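== Fold encoding ==
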Amino acid sequence: MKRLFILFVFSCLAAPGFSGFKAKIIKPKKPEQYQTSTTIGGVTFSADLLLDGKAQKDFFYKELTSSDIIAVRLAVFNNSRSGVILPLDGIQLTGPGGDDLPLVAPDQVAQAVLQGMVVKSAEKRKSMPISVAPNTRTSDPRTDKTDPRYDPRLDPNDPTYDPTDPRNRGSNDPRYGDPRYNDPRYGRGYPMPGVVLSPGGGGGGGGDTDLSQYERQLAEKDFSDKAHPSDPIDGSMVRDRFLYFSMKDRPASEKGFTLRLPKSKGIPQEILLKF
């Protein structure tokens, strides 16, 4: 009995250590099980709109609504012989009021959700130029002396710069090994133009401090892994992932939303998915 009691106490003490990030598994569905679906040229496009925070937590570590983000689960069933490319820059989600919602990069979603910040739309996507937050960078932070990640080995204007140093070939920051860093869709690893982060605006920041750095990296990777990439979807393959959009005022119902996929390789005409 004493031994059982010791084991019970140990389990109670160990439980908080395992209360951090937990990945959610996405169970596959058939096209007819989605809220909306259409087929053209042997390719079926199916989608679910996730407005409710409870529904979002079925797929993500934390709900997105507190950061003014909603998600669309988009599945592409490619039953054709050719590849299909989703033109991520051209995908549009239109709300019931006719407003286009800005697409948000997965790394920015992770940053906002984990730090309890709010993602705000600077302007409509069609309105150019788009204002960007003052802290949004467009250059390599390793060459910016005001950035804590500044690396003098990569700054030709720094006296310690040495172009022959073999260490200049890379960085110790693992984020620079991420292929998304040079992907223009993600603004070279920084927030996309058209959406800015408002510090402290979210409602989910209170419970984030108990995440270790390792767990935070897992959470960031999880949001990225669950987002649609720009890679082609080969014939006879299925890709079932998410798109993230910024939306402050969320209606109570999905009715009236439209997801628009423009023409692209493997998509001979514009696809409209109405919720």
The chain has a mean pLDDT of 76.
